[in-house]
Design brief:
34 residues; 2 helices
Length: 34
């Protein structure tokens, strides 16, 4: 699944900045504890 489809699946706007998306994914991956 590509990034745009993944964002649409989660309900994010299509114009969200890449760095914001990457940060959100990273925080979720590490459990948001760092």
């Amino acid at each position: 699944m590509d990034r745009l489809s993944f964002m649409n699946f989660l309900g994010f706007p299509e114009d969200i900045p890449d760095f914001t998306f990457d940060r959100m994914v990273f925080q979720r991956a590490v459990g948001e504890d760092r």
